[in-house]
TrEMBL record:
Keywords: ATP-binding, Nucleotide-binding, Transport. The gene is glnQ. Residues 2-236 form the ABC transporter domain. SUPFAM superfamilies: P-loop containing nucleoside triphosphate hydrolases (SSF52540). SMART domains: AAA. This is Glutamine transport ATP-binding protein GlnQ. Belongs to the ABC transporter superfamily. The lineage of its organism: Bacteria, Bacillati, Bacillota, Bacilli, Bacillales.
Amino acid sequence: MIQFHQVNKFYGTFHVLKDINLHIKEGEVVVIIGPSGSGKSTLLRCINRLETVSSGELIVDGMKVNDKKTDINRLRQEIGMVFQHFNLYPHMTVLQNITLAPMKVRGISEEEARETAMYYLKKVGIPEKANAYPSSLSGGQQQRVAIARGLAMKPKIMLFDEPTSALDPEMIGEVLDVMKTLAREGMTMVVVTHEMGFAREVADRVIFIDQGQIKEDAPPQQFFTQPRDDRARLFLSRVL
Ligand code: ADP
Ligand code: MG
């Protein structure tokens, strides 16, 4: 579903991603961890071309992400993204936030978009908030709306960039629970997170990135008990 072949990325002269090789299969849940500034967000953002790669090849669902001929809108329709800060439209209700893109981008009717939105609002556990404005919701609820909004586009891939990092501790669980459900249902997911419990429980693979390089790529059981890389070991000793 996602293939990085020898991908490099520079910001000016700064080499942020170095020879990234990473293959993610349909239905896999891959958790990316690593120190701040190591390139995790950049790697994620290359997948839906919020960033362009400098060299190498990146193929997502059969589309060459950096080929000029690739329909970038089609690519992005296949990929939902959830950010640390929920990025909901403050002047729109929850329902409007969720129905906007399916109507505009996928061109489906308002009625169908509403039905779909309600389906996903139920899935994330807050159908009663359909007509509320984001500012009246808790952080955990806003993030669940953001996930429902992503899902309403019926993507093949969901990207999560530290989705619980901005939340109060008591709200982290409700967001992780929604993500666990998605994972169990077979969604292809790439998740940048510091939640090691989630990684252990849900990830098929854990990727450790340091200074723009993949230093480990292992099943959680192996990664958490016997990391091979020194930096990964050091990192784990700090976060666990
Ligand atoms: P992470 O998500 O692992 O914290 P990022 O991918 O956000 O790391 O950033 C990796 C490095 O690239 C950091 O040193 C950051 O300062 C730098 N960086 C990120 N975005 C840009 C940008 N748009 N322009 C220049 N440097 C950037
Ligand atoms: Mg980041």
